[in-house]
Fold this sequence. Notes:
The structure holds 3 protein chains of 3 kinds. Helices cover 38% and strands 15% of the residues of chain A. Chain A is an alpha/beta fold. Chain A has a single domain, classed as Rossmann fold, CATH 3.40.50.970. An 8-stranded mixed beta sheet of chain A has the order 2-1-3-4-8-7-9-10, with helices on both faces. In chain A, strands 5-6 form a two-stranded antiparallel sheet. Chain A is globular, with a radius of gyration of 19 Å. In chain B, strand 2 and strand 3 form a beta hairpin. Chain B has a two-stranded antiparallel ribbon with strand order 1-4. Chain B has a two-stranded antiparallel sheet with strand order 2-3. Chain C is an alpha/beta fold. Chain C folds into 2 domains: 244 residues, Thiamin diphosphate (ThDP)-binding fold, Pyr/PP domains (Rossmann fold); 138 residues, 3-Layer(aba) Sandwich (Rossmann fold), CATH 3.40.50. Chain C contains 13 helices and 16 strands. In chain C, strands 3-2-4-5-7-6-13 form a 7-stranded mixed beta sheet, with helices on both faces. In chain C, helix 1 runs parallel beside helix 6, helix 3 runs parallel beside helix 4 and helix 10 packs across helix 11. Chain C is globular. The interface between A and B is large, with 46 and 44 residues.
Amino acid sequence: MLTNILTKEDTHKQLFTMGHTGCSGCAQSMAVKLIMQVLGKNTIATSATGCLEVFSTKFPESSWNIPWIHSLFENSAAIASGIEAALQITGKKDGTTVLSQAGDGGTADIGLQALSGMFERGHDVLYICYDNGAYMNTGYQRSGLTPYDSFTTTSPSGKISFGNNRPKKYMPEIAMAHKIPYTAVASAGYPIDLQKKVKKTLSIKGPKYLQVDVPCVPGWKYEPRYSVKIAQLAVQSGLYPLFEAEYGKITSVKKISKRVPVEEYLKLQGRFKHLFKNEAGKAEIEKIQKIADENIEQYGLL
Amino acid sequence: MLLRLRTIILKERKLDFKLGIIARPGSALSNKTGSFRSEIPVFKHEKCTGCDLCIYYCPEGVVFGDKKTKTYNFDDDYCKGCGICAEECPVDDIEMFLVEK
Amino acid sequence: MKKVLEGSMAISDSIRMTEPKVISAYPITPQTHIVEHLSQMVADGDLKAEYVMVESEHSAASVVLGASACGVRTYTATAAQGLLYMEEVIYNIAGMRLPVVLTVANRAVSAPISIWNDMQDSMALRDSGAIQLVAENNQEAYDMHIQAYKIAENPEVMLPVMVCVDGFVLTHTFEVVETIDHIEKVREYLPPLNMKYTLDINNPFSFGTVGEPSVYLETRFRLSNAINNSKSIIVDAANDYKEMFGKYEGALIDTYKMDDADTVIVAMGSVLGTIKDVVDELREAGKKIGVLKIRAFRPFPADEIVNALKNIKNAIVIEKAVSLGKGGILSCEIRDALYQRRINSVNVNGYVMGLGGRDITPKNIYDLIIKAEKEEDVDGEFFGLNNELLNKVF
């Protein structure tokens, strides 16, 4: 799957180039790089406002070697719809992928309406949600995809709080409820699985939804080198089930190869460190373990 | 200094931003992000199995190398020194060293 | 060919003649008939376009933004709340320099909710960078849309154009409209859209990048210049149209019986019809009175307005919108234009009338003229209030 990157010159020819201002260890930039390797140059991309947009296109510089457009926070899917419509009517759609990208807030919160509209109208668009579980670009505020008990700057832990008191929104299920041809969840921790899923979207006409777990160094508060490890632990603990679904029905799941307790995942991240301070925190960890257990049961991850 | 550099870049490329702020493709390459790093990887080429994982996992895409000859390296103009390649190398053949500034 | 057409039919027919490739709209009264007619044209194959039925005005504007960035001609229409919901995207379209044309079926803004006509909605977008043209009648609405594309797509302009037509008063009213018989003539007037930068896989550019403090000011300066300089292009578009189709309703402004006038009524949109009737009668009675029509509200034709008004005693501005906390909008801008050129001989009085669809009758206008000629420097006073209602306890 991976294109041959044999020399330094090869690295400079990537469709998503280095030179962007993403944080050291950013899993989102890793995911974008991997995704673009599969999608190829006949791709037109949109990005919602967010980290990716800001760090990849600081005028006059751009990391994109494909046509790319950013408009607003909530309209990535609608912009992509317009692009797809323009390509259809001018007969240029065949052989061109329309990619619509946003973060978790731009997808599941402010951009949900535009996304649902794009699904329902059946545009031939691949929508990718880079899920880092909070509004990282604005400084780690809570979003609808922030996991249970996570510290964010607007759901801080405190004397009487363990952080975000609501479970993560089941966004892939919302996509599946639209009965779109393809929905998948992937992770920056499993690049081959991610690339396989992206490749699959190339053969499917209609709306496709792909959600990718992308750990965030400053937001999740861990050392940059742990980005992949943490992403893998999310999957192995059952907190981030990876699966594929077609027309609303799950068709495959990535089985857990070596099950780990959620504690292994939580303890590496500063956003959960308040759970390790006292007995009450332990009870909270048990609740998170229960979420993981339920996921394992529901998706058949073992 | 950074500002002056940017002005020079602007002039050199004669960017016509009469029609909004449109950027040329891949122009971010002019931004050498190597200055971000405090650590730098060393590819030891001792136990390398040619698994390509360092290429896959590099968030910047600066690692390159040949599976067949099992020689990998990176572009130090851009490497931000995150250390993921060293952390994830299955045979510990990459090591991080502090950069003296 | 002369036809009796509802305003919405006239507009949709003129849009058909411009052959947009992507149309996207969300229904809102009183814009609905326009987009219904267009949908029917697409359904019948009379217009070869993608009609994207979106889930909101925000997405409607976003769809045409995306399509326009691909280099195709696009169209949307809305009104009132819909326009306010689009506002964010309209600013974006202007900043990205995309030649989208949209119709605003002018309607009052909530609360209280009102589906009836005034101009508060489009006034809210006066600083957005979109060109605003205002139609007086169905014929002008028809002609103005074709001119709008000519203006928007000029390489020196590249900006969205809002064509404002009074909701119901024009959109739902039948008038005689002379339509263009041959689409080839429109094609000649309006050649295919040819954009310098588009989303093209063979020539990839990045659109909508981050404008840091080191570049933002200059991008807005460019935008400001583009809309200011569009004045001459609006004039050219009107003159070329006249030459080709024999129709002319003014360019930036238009004057009516102003030659020797002491008093001039200034207004925009459909109310001009009623005003002209009143002026005709007053002229017959020997009163030196005329009408100044503002056809382009943005860019604001300050020079042209000052030239037209500089020898006048009284300018009575009828406004169908109000800047709450300030007063008149159009009157304030006219006074500013005069002040800037140190002309203090013109007495400008601005009156807010007809909000939320309240009829502006000939009698209102007679009464207003009598009152206004006795007053000085009125800044957006409400006129035509029902005092009985104001003092009533429900």
